[in-house]
Amino acid sequence: MHKILVADDNADLRKQIVEILDAAGYAIEEAANGREAVEKVGKGDFDVIILDSIMPIMKGLEVISEIRKVSPKTKVVIMTAFATIENAVDFIKKGAAHYLPKPFKISELLTIVRREIEESSFDEGASSADMDYVLNALANPIRRRIIKLLHSSNGMRFMEINRMLAIEDHTKLVFHLRILKEAHIVSQDDAKTYLLTGEGQRVLTSLSILEKHLTTG
Known about the structure:
alpha/beta; about 15% strand
């Protein structure tokens, strides 16, 4: 379950956001000021932080700077009732991933949170393996199909893969499997069964996200 921190000194608004995200299936924690937000980030592993720009003790820009020190990969979505281009630029420069003007629609909040979590998953999958190998592996549609087949079947033998793909020239399949193995996306066990590695599972997540964005965007 993805974990989100909601930091806002306005208790009513904070409660509303918590209820929305909780209903969407996220694990939620709260912070009533900037210092509390930084302390919680230091102790917990959050996917996204929903952060008010103006709070007691520490302002939004200060909070972002401190969060970047303890959790540089965590996505920060800044909320503000004073939306200007200058403010947006300042927050993005400090490390905010997104800028959400108040008031906002529920659908807008959920879309932003979902997008930031997907981008985090993509970043993790892409950075966990050698980028050149990964991109080369994903460039070919046959290799993409192999990755999906192995995921859906929890492992397949060579002839099973060949039968599913209907490749007449077996040497072509050997070539594609070798590329996937060199990229550490696919491995073989003692029974000669081809399996997705841990890297392969993360790459599959990235591939799914990329395909979704290409078909909807």
